[in-house]
Specification:
Length: about 200
């Protein structure tokens, strides 16, 4: 049974952990992951931001690493991928203005493929109009966007995640163990279902 081919849509000032940790974890578990950013090519980088919870009323932000993209957004076709990952950080705020990104996100929902979004990734889901009637976690400040898009906001612990069918979401990077475990369970269930149908 071949491992899933996963698309990660990211951009400048994506959250550092929320990009690097799932990218490396999924690769280490045998999945193929293509990280792309509109307007950039394979081999180019996006700047990351480190968001920490240090006792302030919201997260603090510091400059992170340069994350190397391994595929070119202009060359990919969403139809060629089995699943989608959307990291948080500040990138979703501007990526949601890109109509090609919106179309790609919508494809995964229309085809009922697995989607994992974390933190501010819900901004992209809201803009794509795919949350109506769906349970979705996000960074708490994104709750209004989830609800205005017709979603049901999951008010869960910062280190927890929630699955609604093929959609797996979490509030922030402390949820990585739960978020990635649930996402990989959905990926494997989809692969098994596809293999049984073949």
């Amino acid at each position: 049974m071949p491992a899933a081919k996963i698309l990660m849509i990211t951009g400048d000032f994506t959250e550092d952990y929320e990009t690097m940790v799932p990218f490396q974890t999924l690769l280490a578990c045998g999945y193929t992951v293509h990280a792309v950013c509109p307007g950039k090519n394979a081999g180019e980088t996006v700047a990351t931001a480190i968001h920490d919870f240090e006792g302030d009323q919201t997260y603090s932000e510091k400059r992170g690493h340069n994350f190397a993209l391994n595929a070119t957004f202009a060359s990919i076709r969403a139809e060629d991928y089995d699943a989608l990952v959307i990291p948080g950080g500040r990138a979703p705020e501007y990526l949601r203005l890109n109509s090609e990104v919106i179309k790609a996100v919508q494809h995964f929902f229309e085809a009922d493929k697995p989607v994992a979004a974390i933190c501010h990734g819900a901004q992209l889901l809201s803009a794509a109009g795919v949350l109506k009637g769906r349970t979705c976690s996000a960074y708490p400040a994104c709750r209004p966007e989830v609800e205005l898009a017709g979603g049901i906001y999951a008010d869960i612990a910062i280190n927890d995640a929630v699955a609604d069918g093929n959609l797996v979401t979490a509030p922030a990077w402390p949820a990585h163990p739960s978020w990635l475990r649930q996402f990989m369970a959905v990926l494997d269930a989809n692969a098994l279902s596809a293999a049984n149908a073949a």
